[in-house]
Description:
The chain is α+β, with helices and mostly antiparallel strands. Helices cover 42% and strands 17% of the residues. The protein is built from 39 helices and 39 strands. It has a nine-stranded mixed beta sheet, with helices on both faces. Strands 19-18-32-31-30-29-28-27-26 form a nine-stranded antiparallel beta sheet, with helices on both faces. It has a six-stranded antiparallel beta sheet with strand order 3-2-4-13-5-11. Strand 27 (640-645) and strand 28 (648-658) form a beta hairpin. Helix 28 (963-1002) runs antiparallel to helix 30 (1025-1034). Residues 1-112, 533-539 and 1204-1220 have low confidence and may be disordered.
Amino acid sequence: xxxxxxxxxxxxxxxxxxxxxxxxxxxxxxxxxxxxxxxxxxxxxxxxxxxxxxxxxxxxxxxxxxxxxxxxxxxxxxxxxxxxxxxxxxxxxxxxxxxxxxxxxxxxxxxxxxxxxxxxxxxxxxxxxxxxxxxxxxxxxxxxxxxxxxxxxxxxxxxxxxxxxxxxxxxxxxxxxxxxxxxxxxxxxxxxxxxxxxxxxxxxxxxxxxxxxxxxxxxxxxxxxxxxxxxxxxxxxxxxxxxxxxxxxxxxxxxxxxxxxxxxxxxxxxxxxxxxxxxxxxxxxxxxxxxxxxxxxxxxxxxxxxxxxxxxxxxxxxxxxxxxxxxxxxxxxxxxxxxxxxxxxxxxxxxxxxxxxxxxxxxxxxxxxxxxxxxxxxxxxxxxxxxxxxxxxxxxxxxxxxxxxxxxxxxxxxxxxxxxxxxxxxxxxxxxxxxxxxxxxxxxxxxxxxxxxxxxxxxxxxxxxxxxxxxxxxxxxxxxxxxxxxxxxxxxxxxxxxxxxxxxxxxxxxxxxxxxxxxxxxxxxxxxxxxxxxxxxxxxxxxxxxxxxxxxxxxxxxxxxxxxxxxxxxxxxxxxxxxxxxxxxxxxxxxxxxxxxxxxxxxxxxxxxxxxxxxxxxxxxxxxxxxxxxxxxxxxxxxxxxxxxxxxxxxxxxxxxxxxxxxxxxxxxxxxxxxxxxxxxxxxxxxxxxxxxxxxxxxxxxxxxxxxxxxxxxxxxxxxxxxxxxxxxxxxxxxxxxxxxxxxxxxxxxxxxxxxxxxxxxxxxxxxxxxxxxxxxxxxxxxxxxxxxxxxxxxxxxxxxxxxxxxxxxxxxxxxxxxxxxxxxxxxxxxxxxxxxxxxxxxxxxxxxxxxxxxxxxxxxxxxxxxxxxxxxxxxxxxxxxxxxxxxxxxxxxxxxxxxxxxxxxxxxxxxxxxxxxxxxxxxxxxxxxxxxxxxxxxxxxxxxxxxxxxxxxxxxxxxxxxxxxxxxxxxxxxxxxxxxxxxxxxxxxxxxxxxxxxxxxxxxxxxxxxxxxxxxxxxxxxxxxxxxxxxxxxxxxxxxxxxxxxxxxxxxxxxxxxxxxxxxxxxxxxxxxxxxxxxxxxxxxxxxxxxxxxxxxxxxxxxxxxxxxxxxxxxxxxxxxxxxxxxxxxxxxxxxxxxxxxxxxxxxxxxxxxxxxxxxxxxxxxxxxxxxxxxxxxxxxxxxxxxxxxxxxxxxxxxxxxxxxxxxxxxxxxxxxxxxxxx
Length: 1224
């Protein structure tokens, strides 16, 4: 009965990564095959019983990064199967499509039926009943953080997460107390209020933009079934349970289970670019039982029991009860919010998740928050400054106590202090609480007076500088990719300076070092190599044309063909050789999930193009290759495909399709051929295909093909093995019966379906092998060479086979013929331990030989470590980690092959754990997301594999070679500028505090200030803030051309030359000297004069402002008009502000500046202060640069002279090979 019913039910897909997956440790001698693509996967995953899992002879090995990584589900790999109708009449019987996938692959839910407690109940076309038990969220989305009411409290709460802000808030509050009031109450609040206001305005603007976007999104219209008619309804009003109709090219308003489509078999094509960044079309399917239902004409009722909302966009498990039947729903039956309907006139579905519960919204989170190394290190210096502050306050308060004790008998009448109020009949004390309390008050008042020792303005300055740096990085034309029309993107502003300190670069290969634009190069068919062992670049370009609906159509991509192979493909099946060629290209054209689309040819309006939409570039390349040899796929439906074979249209019924999954590493299609035979065509990786080839047949062909595979891999080509076999009627019926039973199983469905696929994919006849070239991106070899010269270690982590990875390593100059290669391929923990021990011994010998050769002048031989994913399974998260890192740290290059996505992240985590060196990961696909997020800096390539890597990255760009200007130019500049700016801000604020401190010592420790309170508040905001920000954005210590020409200059950041503890203490020492000069020169100059305190306070203010600006001017490398404007403009602005403040009679110091400026001694004092304060710094700087110049200084001087000689980069350059820095 089952065999007579035409049924097409694809099998479930298997995800590459899920959350909270069970993992069973296995001993090394268990004989279990390791899943290299994802060691977290458990074959037979739908059974929680270990015995049941072991029965399938597959079990998972514990991955390196299971315990340390958050769940980031990777792209699900396909593993679908399609059932078929009667074997006896394959051509005439209509084929209908059933469930594309059974149940979800998420382990925690795929092993049992969903219980009512864990389920969401959705009643079809009955939103009221659906929301009766639990009121589900509406479809309105709110990405904005604030409302009108919550903005002020929530924004302030978020801003005060910075401890420095709390510190300044406490200072402002203390200053409001009468006993502690040093400054005016308003003036004390001004700096903090200004910083909070600027940040709040920025946050408000960003949130306003989000609210406008939400408003547009929520007010979009969709067709919703209301009173048996489809009516337009705003997205925000859609409810769970409502039936919605989507038109072609419309965006889905919510997550919907498909009920029917315009296609008679229930197929719908969706584009998920807004969800996961992938532009290729995906197929989704409606259930057979709901295909014929027309909502406008008949009442649709039923119940969907689905899992609760979760973030897994590749998993979905549900059951649907309709018309007395229970149907299983899987990921291929649901279409998600944000996707677009393509190549389908309309689709009807029922809303199951709305609003913030949709998978798109649950995944709407940015990459992990990262803090730059400089900002983290700056905190330790701020602690030191806090100790300075406490020390100054302690000195003042203790000195005040001593002063009070010594003069306790004079306090009533002593001038400037007088404790008693004698203007009353009964003299009373002013606010005097005894000398003990006065000590406490003095200490607190000291904190208020010296508060700017902790530079609050530094935080906002750093934010502004980072924005400016990001602007120039984005506008850099040398990081613009014309091919993809993409600019550099700065997605994380807070780690710009980390780009200048990178020591390790972890790179993916496919799509990162290579273009990920696959080109078919050659093939081995039935043991004959049609490339003579090399890629023939002279082969002719194929120009194959067909007519579709009266239109001339040619493939969109041209492929180089071998003339001999092309002639054989045209000769049909006349000879044995031609028959194998025919079957080979038939397999390439049919064994895929390609969707053929006819598009316009912009170069020739009379011509149309056949555009193959596929879910992987490999599939597309093979389909275009088949078309070039005359096997053009022109039509695909859910039940059949049409292939034009050299002008003859042939229709093949698709009776079954098992798509590629990471366990089987192969895919197969079961075809009902025009001659009424049934064949299964299989393609896959050689590691999986050779195990299912019938070795009793054609042993010579198998051995020859193995040799061709090795030769292709050695050329850096990606290989696949093609096989096939005929199915007898009984075999087909057995497969179909087993498949139906597996696809309707409630428990263990995924394992059963995989077993069914394995049963049909066996005893194959080998047809041949294909070789696809993934070309290196432009400039990759030069980029890797520059990075290595800069002292950056480049590690390549790839899932490709070892031969292919090594070949790419040579072509990219990652590997050289002079390198000694250490290769580790082990299948047990004991073997790994032995290999690592031997490798360490060899490494030490090579190091000893290198030291000897260094003494004799012989060049040192670099070492390259090549290790596979199987070995890493046993090494990572074990005691062998330390040995691996010890070995890798002595190698110039590390190349990891056949590694799973989580193993990539585990390797990055290992380096971060063992060393404090900065790490950068770069990749282009979903399998690189974990690695990108684990590294200190993550870079995404906007390539062919979607935008998942870009969306998870800190920076994104179009080509790997852009990493060179990003690190060597912008990274160097950003680090040098930011390091200098932080030290300068410490200096700028500390010199002002020390002047106040010296004055307190001369004013009986009363903390009265000579400097106007408003000048104290404006010092960090107006007087001195703008120059340092502008210089930190625009100044360049070395030109771009020389930074690129001499990559060794990048080592300054790795050695932390621009910001370190030594520079901090030298800066503080210089600060103390300059403050002493600023304070005591006027004191001695006006010691015998009658000048008042506000006048000398104005002199100190102007002297400090001029001094810090000239200090900055001494360090500017490349002057321009902007620097002149901000530096001299700040000095002029300070003069103007001081004169304005002294023009108000109500303020202390009325007209003081005008009185003192009229004296010649004022200008002599300013000149003397500047000369005496800056002279030691100038002398030390000259001596240091003359006798012990660093690399940057040498390059800068030679650049200034206009002729860079070799000595500029030869003097004490940082060696490439360095021992790793220990983890601090």
